[in-house]
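We emphasize that the prediction below concerns an isolated chain of 250 residues; any contacts that depend on oligomerization or on bound cofactors are therefore not represented. The input was used exactly as deposited, without trimming of termini.
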Amino acid sequence: WAEAQEALAHLFRSGEGRATLVGPTPDAEGAWAAAAQARLASRLEELPKEIRSRVEGLALALVRTPAGAEPWVRPLLADGLIASDLDGAIALFAEGRFGAARELLERLLELRGEDLAVRLTLANLYGILRQPDRARDSYLAALQVEPLSAEAHLFYGIHLLAQKDAEGAALELSRALFLDPDLTLAHYYLGRCREAQRDPDRARLAYRNALEAFKRRPDGKRQAFLGYYPDIPEDGAAFARAAEYALAAL
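Result of the prediction step, given as a token string:
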């Protein structure tokens, strides 16, 4: 176990430890691989916290892992460590390391299938990277995972508005508000849509609704967001103020 722990620690620290952990020419059905899988999988919980939290190296190592080794690497990682990998991707995102964050998020989806938090974070990242088609596809995939996610409809609507599709955006934002009438953010962006549609009366209504929603729920939403959106304030106060200014301008 000590040798396996040392190899795994090196893997997490540097992302260069694949050869140490996997072996020079691994056989997916070989006795060493099977033994390593069983030994490490049973000991994941015993790994020091500082090792488990270093997910960037893990992502790099997975990218470098040959296809023959992956069948036993995948179950080793799928349960105990993937949840913390999202935190690692968010940390990279926050540091402005967008390429590394995107790579890790895409790898997470490949490893464990669709996940709403990962998918929404990746969709927003694609938007920041100016890849609108990928962002759209990722939001639609999120809605396939959870059609009743107010958050997914909200941020897909914001994305569509940024792409000058005011009609599509208004539809998505209206769906978000049907699911969560207290989404100050959605009321405000719906007002922006109505302005883009040259409908000042409905824009005023949306902005007034944003102010009323903020009074009902100052945090701006009923549930915490699953995705990571560093470019958009999540609290209700910022958008209540913006709605107030927009209402005065109309």
